[in-house]
């Protein structure tokens, strides 16, 4: 089999060898569309950066760590699975490897940080599932451990770089779609207050309804199909429902047959049952996280932390 080189990748992507090198070593200088094309070529050809040579040159392990989330109901867990897949792809292109770990709760995760930093020559972390009062970021920052987060700090100072999806924009788009199709009684099925993501998703719906001068009616449930169905039964006046997750949307579909339903996350289940849902740009978010962490590790990061808020998209199917 012919050896795959930077030149091979350059031909496949239709760019110069220098552009391929820039995507691997200094991705921020390459236009996003070109960067994505080169990454696709690298992945399809199976090109691998010479890891040993890079470690000798940089003095770093090129090893990153990220947590695997609990399986939960098997529906919403697939969202972070897709993010991890995208992160692993982006890390490979940049010459890094990704170590996965599990942990229960913030304290358990911080204890795992200590173990991993002691046992492995880690370069940095990518954190997911940020939340109010999150102690993980301050623990890493106090010890000068490089990290970025997929998710905003939710109320804490923006002292580190992060990438997030504009959750409010997603539910606002869903609500506008329902308004455009003639619905004026649009309910919301979300999570208990206090979840940064859940609160943002509710706000997108509520603000759009307020702009239209329409009343709001909402209920909350612990995420899951059964609890979503039980809560949705109380939305007796709604002709349409915007939901904070696809799990809740499936419950609403069961409890409110014939109503227009929109979910969030565009999971495989949503596609299978024809559920209209808000899709997150997870591969792009993962690639941006990798870019920001690579900048930080290479000493190329700007003085002010970078905050990227990516727009989601509404995928319209038969339920709305």
What would you note in describing this structure?
The radius of gyration is 21 Å and the shape is globular. Strand 1, helix 5 (77-93) and strand 2 (97-101) form a beta-alpha-beta unit. The termini are far apart. 41% of the residues are buried. By secondary structure, the protein is α/β, with parallel strands linked by helices. The chain has a 6-stranded parallel sheet with strand order 2-1-3-4-5-11, sandwiched between helices. The protein has a 6-stranded mixed sheet with strand order 7-6-8-9-10-12, with helices on both faces. Helix 1 crosses helix 2 (17-25) and helix 8 runs parallel beside helix 9 (196-211). The chain has 2 domains: 6-165 and 281-310, Rossmann fold (3-Layer(aba) Sandwich); 167-279, 3-Layer(aba) Sandwich (Rossmann fold). The longest helix has 17 residues, at 77-93. The chain has helices at 6-13, 17-25, 32-45, 51-58, 77-93, 105-119, 136-142, 167-180, 196-211, 225-232, 246-255, 268-273, 282-297; strands at 63-67, 97-101, 124-128, 147-150, 162-165, 186-190, 218-220, 240-243, 260-264, 276-279, 307-310, 313-315. Residues 51-58 have low confidence and may be disordered. The protein is built from 13 helices and 12 strands.
């Amino acid at each position: 089999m012919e050896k795959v080189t930077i030149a091979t990748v350059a031909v496949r992507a239709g760019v110069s060898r220098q552009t391929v090198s820039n995507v691997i070593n200094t991705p921020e200088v390459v236009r996003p569309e070109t960067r994505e094309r080169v990454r696709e070529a690298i992945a399809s050809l199976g090109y691998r950066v010479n890891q040993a040579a890079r470690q000798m040159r940089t003095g770093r392990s090129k090893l990153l760590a990220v947590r695997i989330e609990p399986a939960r109901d098997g529906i919403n867990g697939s969202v972070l699975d897709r993010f991890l897949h995208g992160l692993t792809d982006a890390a490979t292109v940049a010459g890094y490897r990704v170590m996965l770990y599990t942990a229960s709760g913030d304290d358990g995760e911080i204890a795992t940080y200590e173990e991993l930093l002691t046992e492995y020559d880690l370069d940095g972390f990518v954190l997911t599932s940020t939340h109010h009062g999150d102690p993980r970021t301050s623990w890493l920052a106090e010890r000068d451990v490089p990290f970025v987060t997929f998710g905003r700090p939710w109320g804490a100072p923006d002292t580190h770089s992060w990438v997030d999806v504009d959750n409010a924009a997603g539910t606002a788009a869903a609500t506008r779609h329902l308004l455009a199709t003639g619905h004026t009684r649009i309910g919301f099925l979300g999570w208990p207050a206090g979840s940064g993501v859940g609160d943002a998703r509710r706000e997108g719906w509520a603000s759009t309804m307020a702009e239209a001068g329409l009343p709001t009616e909402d209920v909350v449930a612990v995420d899951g199909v059964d609890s979503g169905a039980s809560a949705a039964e109380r939305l007796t006046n709604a002709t349409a429902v915007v939901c904070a997750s696809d799990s809740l949307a499936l419950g609403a579909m069961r409890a409110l047959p014939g109503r227009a339903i929109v979910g969030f996350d565009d999971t495989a289940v949503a596609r299978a049952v024809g559920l209209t849902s808000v899709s997150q740009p997870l591969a792009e978010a993962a690639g941006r996280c990798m870019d920001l962490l690579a900048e930080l590790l290479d000493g190329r990061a700007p003085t002010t932390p970078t905050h990227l808020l990516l727009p989601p998209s509404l995928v319209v199917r038969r339920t709305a």
